[in-house]
Prior knowledge:
Layout: E1 5-16, E2 19-30, E3 34-38, H1 45-53, E4 60-65, E5 68-69, E6 80-83, H2 95-105, H3 110-123, H4 139-151, E7 157-161, H5 169-183, E8 188-192, H6 196-202, E9 205-210, E10 213-219, H7 220-227, E11 232-238, H8 244-251, E12 256-261, E13 266-271, H9 275-286, E14 292-298, H10 302-309
Amino acid sequence: MDGGIAIEAENLTKTYGSFTAISDINLKVRKGEFMGLVGPNGAGKSTTLKAITGLLQPTSGTVRISGIDIKDHRHAMEHVGCVIETPEPYPGFTPAEILTYTGKMYGMDQAEIAIRSRDVLEQVKMWDWRGKTISGFSKGMRQRIVLAQALLPNPEIIILDEPTSGLDPRGMVETRKVLQNLKSKDRTLLISTHILSEVSELCGSITMIRDGRVIASGDVATLVRGSVKKGVTLLVGTVRPVSEETLSSVSGMEGVRSAEHKGDNTVVIEFDGTPDQQAEVTRAMFESGAGVLWINEKGATLESMYMEMTEEGS
């Protein structure tokens, strides 16, 4: 297998009697990649993550972590931190105590536990609460402690199921910042979420599932461009009016449905081509001599792709 693959699920299937929760799920997450696992409620996201992390035995299929089959090698998960569904930390513990317990389970010594505990509690904004009993915490605070547990051993791979569930807006933003910072540390993230803006902000790739099956997987921008039927509208603001000659030339370029003036210094381009074709259109506008100030893209979004691909009967 490619040494650059951090997580690989191959033909994962899980059945319960006559009910099939997931069927032939295939996905690959490369090292250093952030992938979002998205789909409607009941699509099979949590079941997929449970199978990947070994929390349930799939009916068939294979999971490899950094090339190691988790079924045959228990140490495959040594460098993985995960939060699946909404686990509850022991209510009678303090954050410091539960991280000490977690660190010992990972075989960390006391000095390392102390250093890493402070690091992760500061990351999730819970350091000042380290000596308080968890039973008095809100749901969002408990969720932060669970995330701190997952990050404690400084894992190379992080697998999270709805990590911002239960958090207030500030908590959601702060949690996303924690995850964004993992990119600079060359970590790998597989995250399940129903918040599409979260995927757009964090992830470069997605795997979309519906009714237990993969319906799309790959680079976010490429999938959005290729799957949304309506194309995009490019609004181009310039210092000087774009000449009719340039406008006519752009109108004839591949992927362009129309190009016309909207006021003196704005051009509206209706486009449904490929990313490479869009790059050529952009280049032509910059070389027009009109002085491009800004280009806004409207129409093709992860949200519109999601709505289209998960529509009943599609």
